[in-house]
## 1
Amino acid sequence: MDAGLSGLLLLLCALPWAQGAKVLVFPMEGSHWLSMRDFSRELHARGHQIVVLAPEVTLHIKGEDFFTLKTFPFPSTQEEYQQNLLGNAKKAFETQGFVEVFFENLAALRNVSELYANSCAGLLHNETLIQQLNSSFFDVVLTDPVFPCGAVLAKYLQIPAVFFLRSIPCDIDSEATQCPNPSSYIPRLLTTHSDHMSFLQRVKNMLYPLPLKYFCHISFTPYESLASELLQREVSLVEVLSHASVWLFRGDFVFDYPRPIMPNMVFIGGINCANRKPLHQEVRHRAAA
Ligand SMILES: *[C@@H]1O[C@H](CO)[C@@H](O)[C@H](O)[C@H]1NC(C)=O
Ligand SMILES: *[C@@H]1O[C@H](CO)[C@@H](O)[C@H](O)[C@H]1NC(C)=O
Ligand SMILES: *[C@@H]1O[C@H](CO)[C@@H](O)[C@H](O)[C@H]1NC(C)=O
């Protein structure tokens, strides 16, 4: 058989796959889901088959005609969950001092992340559900790593992962993609520094992320334990997240200070503007000034 013909045959064999992949979407709750929903709708419109995996109890994730919704148990009722989330949001605005806000949020974060981690453990330990997912032969898992359950699942089932996120705290993305991330040049969250820092600013730049590191430790450790248990060896979150083939960031260097990135990190901030509205008059004046 000549090369042209075998090439054509290969193309024909590949076509059905190229036309429609099986995509397992594992979203993060709340506003995170809104742009992922638009993205999933577009994937569906392009002929891909979408299954959305979500907890039974959510604020925004509801069944729709462009995907199949698969749910797993969540250890809280809708009322409790809403109260928990909304109560916490209110507190964040009520309290004044930084230290107060920090400890208030810490308690709240502990609460909510425990709920999420427990639901994730329930999912990953549910053999029936895992077998169903495994035998569905998904081509890719599309997930927001801020809720790392989807990333753990993708690694466990050995399915390629595409991450879709605004950001993930504690520079875990830089670590997982092995990007250079020196704190002497890269301004940290909330410091309002630029890449030109005095000595004292660099010190502040190194200290600011520390409380956040503690947040991350609390919220992410359960997923490391889960991954280690399932894969039967010590696995860090960084290793779980380094499984991603592509990182799609819903951001842009217009909002965030530029930083070194790897070729599999793509900025798609424009996707947040799917529902455009004209700028407010005042904003337009300021932009023009
Ligand atoms: C944590 O959850 C418990 C039970 O759901 C609730 O009573 C408590 O107020 C919550 N704490 C915070 C700080 O949200
Ligand atoms: C496991 O998953 C199946 C299928 O989604 C579900 O019907 C069942 O209730 C789950 N079992 C537990 C113990 O959560
Ligand atoms: C998924 O199925 C494959 C066989 O197709 C099997 O080798 C693998 O162990 C299964 N993975 C899990 C996590 O059950």
## 2
Amino acid sequence: MWQQILQSVRSLEYPRRNAVLAPAALGAGGLLVCWLLSRRKIKTLAMGDGWWGSGERPPREKEDETIQCFQIETSDREIQELHQRLDQARYIPPLEGAAFQYGFNSTYLQRVVAYWRNQFDWRKQLEILNQYPHFKTTIEGIEVHFVHVKPSRVPKGQAARPLLMVHGWPGSFYEFYKIIPLLTDPAGQGLNEDVVFEVICPSIPGYGFSEAPHQQGFDTLAAARIFHKLMQRLGFQEFYVQGGDWGSRITTNMAQMLPKSVKGLHLNFIFITSGGLGMLVSLLLGAYVPWLVGLTREDSRRLFPYFEKNVYDLLRETGYLHIQATKPDTAGCALNDSPVGLAAYILEKFSTWTDKSFRNMDNGGLERKFSLDDLLTHVMIYWVTSSIVSSMRFYKENVSKNPNAAPDARVGVYVPTGLAAFPQELAHTPRSWAKKKFKNIVTYSYMPRGGHFAAFEEPELLAQDIRQLVKKVEHL
Ligand SMILES: *[C@@H]1O[C@H](CO)[C@@H](O)[C@H](O)[C@H]1NC(C)=O
Ligand SMILES: CC(=O)N[C@H]1CO[C@H](CO)[C@@H](O)[C@@H]1O
């Protein structure tokens, strides 16, 4: 196509016989080329700027860009106070035979709380949390926390690939603690892999140890911009990004903002606002003739019966979303005041989002894939930082408007993208739907097992899939 246009423009250059027509034709050809070029130019998402600190932005004062080392610490008094609250909790019995269908089974909750009170060793978990280097730095008026792990050894002739990994709700940077060694030290984990990463896991502002925004309007675009500023401050020009849940939307926004900085985007949760007409047609016909509407057999297995699997199930599981997208502070008052309520609210998600059938299990299947130590560590990260309310507000800032009108809905994603579709994810997005938004899907994997908390549940599978993307992008 290009060749042809250039050729025809060139052939217009030498028609000596017609000296008058030539410049006119050249001008028209030039315009055509310009128009085509502008059409080919990739639309990016405006980066903008923001201020999330308390009060007015100080006039023209340069932000302190230093990066400080940080360690997670809690005082004995905080632990004592937590124990007092755990001791004073009150419970009502679950409905007979209800398992997790009405929410967290309070009989099982008492067991979790007894473990928390008597066996859970926060000091030991703190040692685990602090085994990797933590830092804080101020961006747009708030302190941003991140974990930064450099590889201990890099194979000869290789360079470590910087990789930013972003968590979601109700998770934290701790979701990545099992995948970090697989990515930064494959040899130490018995993996024969040349591709080694330098991993940066920030806490979304308002989550865990990142300060909460003091101003309204902190959405995924703002988070994406802040993480770009963080990576720039750390000196990375080009890097990979990975995310699930909110992390998926944030890293996608990063790829839309500065596509040149993002070498590859890997997602284990696929956010699309609408799949257009193609999606509608494939929903109507996909169960009968998947091949005709761009679906694979596996897509159709995961999608249908659609209302059962992807509509009713979603309705049953997303009441929290409506609360958090409308009046987060109200329910948040209770959760921030009661560690038992907080544990029930957070851990219920680790049950059903890992496997929907866990709803029918007395103990929500929680200990099938996770240890209580790991689960309670997540809860503690929210408790000791009082961050549940600010984490919930992120929904308010992102779900209240028309999603199709959001600026990021009108900009495609052109960076090389790897999509990992885990079978127990809340909803399945076939490649043919994702293509509308992600214009350069390099890998699309039907993962054999695992759900919403991919890095936490299936670190080996996720690490493998990230490496697969990097190898394709770099032609290794
Ligand atoms: C709640 O969990 C407890 C402990 O796991 C179990 O014994 C009980 O049967 C469950 N109750 C309901 C209503 O499912
Ligand atoms: C649907 C909605 O309210 N989206 C907001 C969330 O964040 C985007 C940017 O990522 C805003 O532009 C949207 O308005």
## 3
Amino acid sequence: MSQPWKHPDRFVLRHVGPDADEIAEMLRSLRLSSLEELVDETVPASIRLARPLDLPAPLAESELAAQAHELSQRNEIFRSYLGMGYSDCVTPRVIQRNILENPGWYTQYTPYQAEIAQGRLEALLNYQTMVSDLTGLPIANASLLDEATAAAESMHMAHALQTGEEKDVFFASEACHPQTLDVLRTRAEAIGIKLVIGDHAKVDFASLGAFGALVQYPATDGALFDYRAFGEKVHAAGGLFVVAADILSLALLTPPGEFGADVAIGSTQRFGVPLGYGGPHAAYLATKNEFVRKLPGRIIGVAQDSRGKPALRMALQTREQHIRREKATSNICTAQALLAVIAGMYAVYHGPRGIRGIAEMVHTAANSLAGGLRALGVRLVNDAWFDTLHVRGSEADVKKWLAAAESRRINLRRIDAENIGISVDETTTPADVASLLGVFGGDGNAALKGAALASPIPAALQRTSPYLTHAIFNKYHSETEMLRYMRLLESRDLSLTHSMIPLGSCTMKLNATAEMMPITLPGFNRLHPFVPFTQSRGYQQIFDELESFLAEMTGFSAVSLQPNAGAQGEYAGLLAIRKYHESRGDAHRTVCIIPSSAHGTNPASAVMAGLEVVVVKCDEQGNINVADLEEKAQKHRDKLAALMVTYPSTHGVFEEQIKKICSVIHENGGQVYMDGANLNAQLGLCRPGDIGADVCHVNLHKTFCIPHGGGGPGMGPIAVAAHLAPFLPHYPTTVAKNERLSNEFGVGPVSAAPWGSASILIISWAYIKMMGGEGLTHATKVAILNANYIAERLGAHFPIVYRGARGRVAHECILDVRPFKKTAGIEVDDVAKRLMDYGFHAPTMSFPIAGTLMVEPTESESKAELDRFCDAMISIREEIRQIEEGRLSREDNPLKNAPHTADMVIANEWKHAYGRELGAFPAPSTRERKFWPPVGRLNNALGDRNLICTCPPLEDYE
Ligand SMILES: *Cc1c(COP(=O)(O)O)cnc(C)c1O
């Protein structure tokens, strides 16, 4: 498309905060004359990329929109009745516009700073309550990545909960969704668990010696089994009983918690979350109280603030990888928070009667279809079902039916040559059922008028207990009320719509509207993940392009888009390394060296991949201690599998020795895994592949603009050198026929869907298309400039813990506030909470160094915003000085009492030794744009002691 003229508006100038004048000014303050000079002082010359990135020329926003639209139309939207854990549904428009398409919700971070995250914490608590009610189990998390990995997490959980003699067999019913079984196989094999797949009704469980069992409810082919007797056998053998359940079916069926399940897992996709060709969707895991400490993922709990008022926070964080590292309950970091919020809101909006009504409608559609099919003489295999029918015929019949379906633009599940599955959903209309009956040779409408069957759910499996009884699910059913409720919650949260969120290592950059808009196009979000390849040509082109862009930017030769978070990428990459070693007869290479400064997901993923973690020290400058590395690499040379290294380091510097580090590992037979979380400092300047790494993951929700969604979604594709390409994750062709992912040597699937959370790959693709190579390189340079500008301005007030060889930091810097503990009794928490009074989200606290703050501004923040943040930090330093000098009390000062809520400072009573004004309006900018924290400081210890993880009764708020 050649145009005679081009719009002058370039996207890169919108994405990058500082303009040319601001850049020049900031450079002057750093005594530099160009960005190039800054890069020379920051990135070691030995690793610099000598040529520009080879990416297509940048598109304008309007051009991108047109291309995205065109590609969305190259995906063909058939009516899909494929089921297998994915169902089309209706996203209530009021939720779509005000949450899914609203930056006030999608640009939030994981709610670590609870006081300014009460809105999403409440939304997530609603989600947990909904899951708990529907499954009949008291505790639920929020959330896991997908149903298959949730099943795998439950297997890990069951393994960890064993008492007495250790067993290593896990049983899974053959009636589970096939992709669930495949992900289980991958996970089990890596850590030496023997997975036995069989018929739950026939297996001799007692002699199996299994530590747990998983069944699907209803089964993947729709069959409805009563698992009570089986559950008793599992318990008699001392095992954990796990039930994968369809969340909507539980509105009509006896919930797992009432028939003996210890754990229930599943997807909440069909609660208003678009299919999106596989994701993102939130998976759930619910369990009994006694197992809560082994529960993976995030748990929201009810606690109290400094004044004893109810307030919410993330509970039991000491189970997580951040603290427990290789002893963590899981490697889950980024999960699916935004999707959990949406699913929870779907339950708030519909309420118990609405949810039951939808379940009944879906069930009735299945019963009408069943009646019509019986009338046509078609054989139904099962006697009872919820929404899925299993049809059997001769091979010739099946061929004929599938052909007839295709000609009507209908997708049916081909189970095998003689079996077909049909799953109906919330969007299925009587006309759809008539059309389906037409596929089987009848006059659809006539057949439909025939007999709808009565519900086949046996009395023993009919739900009698109530659910969603809490007031939250019973008062926001008009759109006006719903809109106001969502707005109320949004107003309690600080997001990128208020101010910069300078979280080091998290890369909270702009999530541009033009990048976000395509994901809700029907051509992208209504595609079932298992449609035939020919119906997803638009997506396939996006994958092709994105894979080639990522390969070019990382310097690698092949890419897998399957892992749906950075930590999943770590896991997939380490498995690929293990397979590679195995292929060379080196299966005994199982030692993984990890620097002490590494992110907690690194050791947690290594353990999941069956590796043994050896920690290597860091020196005073924050670099890997190369002598220690050489010693450890040599010591373990016969068993060395890999090094995991983050670059630039988690300390925010470009280590000069990185090439040497990589060669030490290679000389000792290991592979180098690069954690790509800090790729935002590398793009266009250097590449992991050139530096000497063999594989790296790319957190698309950091460097490539997928919004953080309050704790997810994200994507963590991995890029690998040619020798590892054969070992990238494959995907079973029995589930989704495709040429792309059928590599026979590859590690098994690591996600439920072939391309993980496919629909949000579009966001990163759009970003790269609009930025181009030059734009991305400019962004990297400005990200480094912004960090150095902050280091320059704040360096005089707070020690900068680490700098590179020539005094520069990379794209983030660590501020030391540890000395104030002695001089003023002030701790890092006090500074973080005081920042809220100034309208800012704290930087990353205590990672990678306890008691410090790590600031990452990103390229998207303008100089004005950087200055506002620096002014706030300097002002806080002055407040600390006043404490040091005795002008403010050591015990009663604005830092210790932060954050200050409106009701605190407006109350008639004010007992503090400083003024109200200083409490709430510490900086001039707070008078114009005040963000009021809705609650006072959280009492953390109390929240973990009395764990409450579902909505408390309203009286508790009074
Ligand atoms: C964010 C991060 C991870 C984990 O990535 P997720 O996408 O959250 O799973 C790993 N390592 C580092 C250094 C990170 O910053």
## 4
Amino acid sequence: MTENGRFGIHGGQYIPETLMNAVIELEEAYNRYKDDPEFNRELTDLFNQYAGRPSRLYYAERMSEDLGGAKIYLKREDLNHTGAHKINNVLGQALLAKKMGKTRLIAETGAGQHGVATATAAALFGMKCVVFMGEEDTRRQALNVYKMKLLGAEVIPVTTGTATLKDAVSQAMREWTSRISDTHYCLGSVMGPHPFPTIVRDFQAVISKEIREQILEAEGKLPAAVIACVGGGSNAIGSFYHFIDDSEVKLIGCEAAGRGIDTFETAATINTGRLGIFHGMKSYFCQDAYGQIAPVYSISAGLDYPGIGPEHAYLHDIGRAEYVPVTDEEAVDAFEYVSRTEGIIPAIESAHALAYAMKYAPTLAKDQSIVVTVSGRGDKDCVSVARYRGEEISE
Ligand SMILES: *Cc1c(COP(=O)(O)O)cnc(C)c1O
């Protein structure tokens, strides 16, 4: 990273004056605690005792033999408490908020996964929790709304704009502005104004720290590639981070192409977006001809954010990481293939990374390995994948 929360030309703090105090307070607190041994001991304890870390690095032998080529290892973030990588970030931010004397967490959520994770951390820390969720999404994701309430959170439907994720982010930022005394905004991915992209990256970097140790133990050398899906980009940057200086390790982010990058129904930001400023950061965004944020689409609710974190935009600019589009169809095929070949039902988000790995592994030699991050488990996606295949199931 370069100075002042910039990643090359990306990142920064494009925010109203009224939000400045909140981000300055957060940055100061983070600088104070990030290398504090006591803070890190407490966080490691939460990771290990509560979230179930370290997560396994599993050699997918049947998949590897069936596809031919490189050995495929799966980083099993799906085995974490709450079933995805999001818990890493929320535990870190909740602990930081507690150290800052905050008693209330607010969060945005799209499909509800980050809202549920934040409500979980708030319950654990005995904090109040308010989650902003587009009204449209509260209808589509009724089960997650129920879970958040069960965990003690209040869910506020957002009716502005398209009443989806981007509007929930905007509403959470407004709420934070008006109430910084007792409230921490627990942002869900490596996006937003500095210092969020750095904070969230650091908490998710535990993924690549573990992968490095585990793959060296298993193979005695680094992998040829690390592959992860990209929504805002937190599981991907977490998976990449400790390999950025190892130029022999290819870093591959898989974007949701939806129905294809030549259609309007896509969420592939690097492949179809342009430079812009939104939600407090400079980065790449899906935009219409007038520079307005474009509506995005993917079968995967966790990947349909119209932007990408600034560090990914930078890694793309300098050619250190590659961002490839994966369609709904390819992801659904991988969802089904990995389920029946390995007995692992991956999140539909993670299935985007697995789909690309299925094409990529056969191009490599048998003595090479690749690591694919399974960012979450796929129980939540069974109804929509069944519907995609023309089958209606009721719960
Ligand atoms: C939220 C989510 C994602 C996308 O978020 P990133 O910040 O890009 O990691 C990916 N996979 C799962 C399982 C998720 O819940």
